[in-house]
Amino acid sequence: MNWSLVPLAEKALSDKLASRVNQEENKMKTVSRMTAEELQEIVEEAVERKLFEIVADPDRGLKLKPEIQRRLKSTLRAQRKGERGIPASQVAKKLGLRW
Q: Do residues 42 and 29 make contact, with C-beta atoms less than 8 angstroms apart?
């Protein structure tokens, strides 16, 4: 092992730790000490994250099983012909739910 590199490694680790401490201190900055731009950026990021959670399709990219595809197509054809399915109130009653 090249022992002459140990002080350099210690310095690098120390610098990295100091950088991480500064990052953590910046994260913990209170709202009262933020600029309007910093606060706006934080709010925008939070809203963007939440909107993505709400509108993102967790099933995107997944394939429907062939049987489910057939049933959906059959239902759509029936609706186009004006046929109605089982009323929700009837399904709820059958399941013992209050509607």
A: no
Cα 63 to Cα 47: distance, rounded to the nearest angstrom: 30
Task: For 64-99, write each residue's pLDDT tens digit.
Answer: 999 999 999 999 999 999 998 888 999 999 999 987
Dihedral, CA of residue 46, residue 52, residue 53 and residue 54, to nearest 10: 110
All structural domains of the chain with their residue ranges: 3-62, 72-99
- Beta carbons of 93 and 99 less than 8 angstroms apart: yes
As a whole number of angstroms, the distance between CA 74 and CA 66 comes to 12
